[in-house]
């Protein structure tokens, strides 16, 4: 780790192919700033990305990275952290990746309280596949796959995280770059699973959840009397429909990360003698 890393050190030489104005630019910049501010550098950082426009981030950032399978970024990130606890592990994806096909992994990563950071670029639509309703699309939203409007109410990611025992639950806005970076930084510094849902507008396929909409609607919890340590207050905020919050909704200061839980008494990287050979033999015999 280096204390003199600049956030641009996390930029790769690849030119992003995101649409001009996509919220994912701001989300990525904030993540890079937060990593640099917390004393990390590309050599100790591992980024696992899901599938979707957001998933391309692993190519645009300079660090160890894996662009995985749809919805499976969190179990991969969990494995990376268990294998090498010294790495700073960040998992990134979108609302389609994380709250639809990946929602089971989300809940279990939350309750496991593994010490990684999960950043979700929530644009409330499937962008890469050209504009279908996603799990966080609002009810009544008209898309190619819901021409008369979506029927289901949207998934509430913070409610899922709180119900699963989340210890750090925050939300940010990609366009508010300083605040977004601060919140990702706090998620990295948290002892346990740091979850940040980011309003990251899709300027091409979502003409409802726009920058203008969020700028008008957002309430920054830091400017209210909200106490993130108060579970009941967090629950009330999270279950408050129609209010777009940014800030830390809930943080358990007594969080015990997975690696320090009773019964977890050894580094998973300490592979028992002969285990790789036995695994290799098993696979070969099976096939
Ligand atoms: Fe961003 Fe939407 Fe373009 Fe995808 S389609 S790059 S989410 S603006």
TrEMBL record:
PANTHER family, sorted:
2-OXOGLUTARATE OXIDOREDUCTASE SUBUNIT KORB, 2-OXOGLUTARATE OXIDOREDUCTASE SUBUNIT KORB-RELATED
The segment(s) forming the Thiamine pyrophosphate enzyme TPP-binding domain are 51-198
Name the UniProt record assigns to this protein: 2-oxoglutarate oxidoreductase, beta subunit
| Species name | Halorhabdus tiamatea SARL4B
Superkingdom per UniProt: Archaea
Keywords for the protein's UniProt record, in alphabetical order: Iron, Iron-sulfur, Magnesium, Metal-binding, Oxidoreductase, Pyruvate, Thiamine pyrophosphate
Q: What class of enzyme is it?
A: oxidoreductase
Domain Pyruvate ferredoxin oxidoreductase beta subunit C-terminal positions: 202-261
| Region listing for Disordered, in residue ranges | 131-152
Q: What is one GO biological process annotated to this record?
A: organic acid metabolic process
Q: Which SUPFAM superfamilies match?
A: Thiamin diphosphate-binding fold (THDP-binding)
Give TM regions.
Answer: none
Q: Does the keyword Hydrolase apply?
A: no
